User: Fold these one by one.
Assistant:
Number 1:
Amino acid sequence: MSARRPLVIGNWKMNLDFVEGLHLVQQLGVLMKNRPVEHVDVVVAAPFVDLRSVSSIVESERFAIALGAQHVNAHENGPHTGEISTSMLKRLNVEWVIVGHSERRMHYAMSEEIVRETLAAVVRAGQHAVLCVGEELSIRENATYHEHVTAQLTSALHGLEERFHDLVTVAYEPLWAIGTGVNATSDQVREMTTFLRAELHERSFTSAKVIYGGSVNSDNAASLIAESDIDGFLVGGASLKAESFYAILRACDDCYAVKR
Ligand code: PGA
């Protein structure tokens, strides 16, 4: 594992209404109060309609959980029916925004250009952007995945002012591992972490964290974090239950405490 403080983000996707979301955060908060995860930054990326109530409970109970959104529109306001702006999210204390998740790229026509504009809007609003990159299976199999993620990185970060570099985190999320139950191996994750860090350094993103997402769960988190030099995880399915998400947080916390 790297010497950086781990970051673990739960991406609820289109799951849990606000009542269910409240319940989950309450349970998670209690687990974290009983045995704190001292060395991990914890974020939940809830659906838009859950954010208000999740934000209230996190604040009133003083849970050490930051709020994230799964997407945002790059425009400040105006005729964008169905969309949400960064300033709306800021009002709800949202500090993190996932940008360019593969599901948005694939199913909601999120082009490289929109990814770049969205990332710029997020960091200019003072929020942390979690840029998702990753290849599909055919690209992994024909061994052009380095070129693929480099192109995604180059496009998304193009022209971003240096003063915003600290607000960028990169999530390596190979599509073949997302929601499939087949996670990338520690070796595969380590290889991509090293590669992405070098690419980020070259672009003067020297403090950017690199996290991994794709079928991370309570069984594989400990070995992935210990063996792959990754800075944390973006967790989908396993973030929907307090116990499994907490187990992932524990794995990162224990590993960091030992390795530091
Ligand atoms: P998964 O999703 O953990 O369910 O594979 C990860 C993600 O899409 O961010």
Number 2:
Amino acid sequence: MPTRASTPAEKPSASTEYIPRTDSLASLQLAAGACKGCDLYQRGTHVVFGEGPRSARLMLVGEQPGDQEDRAGKPFIGPAGRLLDRVLAQVGLDRGEVYVTNTVKHFKWEARGTRRLHVKPSASEVQACRGWLLAELAAIKPTMIVCLGAVAARSLLGRTFSVTRSRGLVIGDTAWAPWLMATYHPSALLRMPDEAAREAALAHFTDDLRRASETLAGLKASRAS
Ligand code: URA
């Protein structure tokens, strides 16, 4: 059985005057394309909105698009996405049935020679984008949310949430879904230089996604019986 924990109070919501009041994902995506809620729109190629079926029971929330996602306008298609897809398949989750999105919808980067390197979004950029994430949550109404990394977890659970301390803990009765869990970000795994540490973290990440899969499967089975 998943561990129940009390949910930290929801943070005050972000300024939302630029977010249309609709639960149409297509309308939200269109409006997000014109978002100027923070300055990141000036450097991004595309706004990268979430992707997946409206009926998804599982919603994965990453940090922000990377270089490849920014160019294609699709979430998690680069190296982190490939690792995510591999682990999802390993634990019996079909990416085609999952809604995948990011906390911040534009790529924040700095030039290093010809490369565009990821820069962590600031608290104000996360806050400016929070209304889009809340709108996606309201439209999808997932049964379970998995936050990938601290930026996603803190956007929903508050700034003091620690992924290192609370990774894998299934939190019940949240404001947005019956279940929520935070785990590592796949990019963090790819960046770990020490092979043994990377393998250990990958095993934890896989266990966490397996727990998410089992929680969803358990709920499905208990509804059917
Ligand atoms: N990292 C993220 O957090 N999101 C993506 O879409 C790609 C990499």
Number 3:
Amino acid sequence: MAPVLGHGPNGDPETQLVESRVLIIMTGGTICMQHSPDGLVPVTGFLKEAMAPRPSFNDASAPVQMHAYKNGEKIILDSLRTPPTAYSRHVRYGILEFSPLLDSSSISSIGWTEIALTVKENYHLFDGFVVLHGTDSLAYSASALSFMMTDLGKPVILTGSQASIFALQSDAVDNLLGSLIIAGTFVIPEVCLFFHHTLFRGNRTTKVSASAFEAFDSPNCAPLAKVTSLGVDVNWTLVRRPTRIAEFQVTKYIDTAHVACLRIFPGIKPEMLDSVLRVPDLRGLILETFGMGNAPGGVDGSLTRVIKDAVERGIVIVNVSQCTNGFVSPLYAPGTILGRAGVVFGHDLTTEAALTKLGYLLAVQNLSYSDITAQMAHSIRGEMTEMTTPSFSHPDGTLDPTLVKLTPAEATFAALGYAVQRGELRNVCEMLEGKESGHQLLKQADYAGNTALHLAAMSASPDIIKELLTRGASVHTRNSANNTPLFLARRTANRECVELLENAGGHLWVDERARSGASTPKLVDEPPSRPMSPGQ
Ligand code: ASN
């Protein structure tokens, strides 16, 4: 597409900068609250009242309306755009406000479903999503959404603030602006939580302060990105990508209504645990244990017996640590005894992730008790640390960097490009083998912005496309001419390649459709496209 030509505040034509599109989903929370006789309450009209008057959210360009979907209905949203970011683009955004707006202490599986479905029905219209949400249950919501969203290919960033955006001193502007810029710039296809200049994997987070601006931590997983004065520093080796050839899906209504959470304490009575485990229709319990996963066995093993009985009745019991750092394991005898009684070791899951993961698995159709316990002990969305496997880096390839004046990274990518073009699947696999260098190569691009997936699409190599997709290559990355791999694959008329890319969630943007003469699908209001550079 032609990049959007905007007008500056004085009506002067601006340099042509591309726009990315982000949908803000406002659920409530302190960020939009104002004082009332009942204390702080959320108020509507966030775009007009809080964002429009602030130059960092509004470059004063001519107003533009955009389409979105709400509960299956097509609606029109007012939009604003940021001034140019450090990544030479504007972020255009509109807001969908939930009704009623919530203090996040009242969110539940219904609210999570509403958020997830809103992302789903607007998925093809935006580059990324920012969910504004109260901080009290933010870590629970980020965890829940991460499980509910399968094969997510675009960023979903949850944020909020400790003080209202209307307060003189607040963290709201930094948190929201940082989230908008990241969601509009980087293909980080995860449910994330952004707070205090830091982007976390959502299902690793926990709220650690009721008042400090540094309110969240991710004790067992390094941040996915940090915002500094130099820009956004993304830790790409940590970023997870979909590795299945499948469309983005949402699981609705996870079952947290039949899951309980209990913190073990010295002197806890077996009867107390037993009565929780006998709550009618209870299906799961998150047991917060001491240290590395220990609980008192009770006099004559009575507490262990209560647990064993509950497991025999089909209740899934998951062991997580009360400690913020570290993990549970059968190192000590009490932990081993719990394991023998049928308790699942949740390794380094947070309570928030354990509870919502179990709720999710209980909502998935046709999972047996052993399917659920098996999945609780393994990472499905990066929520727990997996045993690390050794990785190695591939040598720099066959090209002599001094001869062709390429950097080592460019030389390696060039070698990959040739292997792709020649359809050399084995060579491609070998080059992508090292975990770190493999990820790097998947998002690297040539001088024309083509990633390995673009090259494979042009070379009509379905085997290589499949390999790249299952290693996490993004179908949404566009080259310098704004073309997706799908657009290029359609040009080669290779049906298998087109189908693979479509099955992996690839879609044409409006201008690509016009150029390719493709028929218009159901969702017709995609924005004009713009490059989403793979290195970002
Ligand atoms: N009570 C508020 C909420 O969670 C707290 C906040 O957003 N800072 O909605």
Number 4:
Amino acid sequence: MNPSPEPDRSALRVNPDRLMERLDALARIGAISGTAGCARLALTDEDRAGRDLVVTWMRDLGLDVTVDGIGNVTGVMPSAGDAAPVMTGSHIDTVATGGRYDGNLGVLAGLEVIETVRTAGIEPKRPLAVGFFTDEEGARFPPDMLGSLVYVGGLGLEDALQIEGIDGAVVGDELDRIGYRGIEPCPGAVPHAFIELHIEQGPVLEAEGRHIGAVTGVQGISWTSITITGQSNHAGTTPMSMRRDPAVAAARITTFVHDLANELGHPQVGTVGKIDLRPNLVNVVPQSATMTVDLRNTDDATLQDAERRLRQLLDEMTAPGDLSIDTTTLARFEPVVFDPAVVDLVAAVAESHGHDPLRIPSGAGHDAQMLARVCRTGMIFVPSHDGLSHNPAEHTDPDDLEAGANVLLHTMLHLAEED
Ligand code: GLV
Ligand code: MN
Ligand code: MN
């Protein structure tokens, strides 16, 4: 008897209800009460519970699941040959005030794509794979994209395992504690191509009335931790002229970063997202301030200029006998340009689905920017309501989630037929 003929691939569509059910189920883990958002910081108990759920779904689908030394999890469709897979995926860790779609969409849409393909009895020439990478957010353990950075060999595993988090925990210990220090080697197997679906996390698609973004690249990222040390003293008795006050310096740096980004102009952005004063009491001039500066630009020369000017300010602020300032680079990634042929493919697939895709660079960091170091890579964006992200109110219309997953499906199927 002849095997039953393959269904018409072009008519294939994901099951949106199954995708939404999985997004809802994952969002219940670490849910922030009274909001739609999630708190699943990397390698916490909540992250472990999310990982366990997604791994269960991968195994239920019959995928070959592996975990590597930094806790990246990959599920690959079993296949007879040894062709490198077409890989998709993202992350399931969130910032402490995260939304339910950032990263999670890319992982669960990847799972949905594979289930759709398998249920339809389609056997692509190359297997499909879906993964989630450890600590994409970098909110607990800098740098961001830590797992994918190690996956592509951009940072040695041993160095990564020793990274200390904002709470004093250490990556390797936390991986052991939650049972996700795997045996798969790092760097990981190079896929044939990598394609990531993600929410835009910005306002552009919505403002332009577009439903699909064909992402052209990712802007460069520079994260610096700055510690300013002064002299702690009594708030009532210390004359203003005799103070060495790190809080004032932190405020000056904050406004400088804001003004600098405005002066350099779009797409330069600058953010002070974290300031810790010690001892942080109403009637004590602080002893120290520890703060972070996040600078980003698609143009590396301008980003370097911004870094240089920040450094200049810090040098000016360090007078002998006054404040001392120490800096540490937490993350520094150059801008990435995605493979033009993959960007064109995403746009063509979106057009064939009746969309008018917009080619845009990404403002946020993504695992795809790391995978682009080793294989042909691209990304698909869907709109974020009001441009909100890293906020529990983050929202994307279910029709857009479905549309993005269908563009992912057909982009992957196309790439999977390549030699
Ligand atoms: C990661 O999500 C980042 O862009 O900060
Ligand atoms: Mn993300
Ligand atoms: Mn994020």
